[in-house]
Design brief:
By secondary structure, the chain is mostly helical. The protein has helices spanning 13-39, 44-56. It has one domain. Helix content is 65%, strand content 0%.
Length: 62
């Protein structure tokens, strides 16, 4: 004899939306920090690597 038990856990839509907005905001801030660091970096290797990556992805940079 086997017994199957299922349960559903519902999450509020508001909490789910807030989590998505928080994740998007954090990703945007993290991306801005990385772009700012690389774009204004005085370390030539870091700057040239980003520059070459932009050209490889057909993204105009100058």
């Amino acid at each position: 004899m086997s017994v199957s038990v299922t349960s559903t856990i519902s999450t509020p839509v508001i909490a789910n939306s807030a989590a998505r907005i928080l994740q998007a905001a954090m990703a945007l801030c993290f991306g801005a920090i990385i772009v700012g660091f690389v774009g204004f970096s005085h370390i030539e290797i870091v700057h040239n690597a980003a520059h070459d990556t932009r050209h490889a992805n057909a993204f105009p940079c100058h």
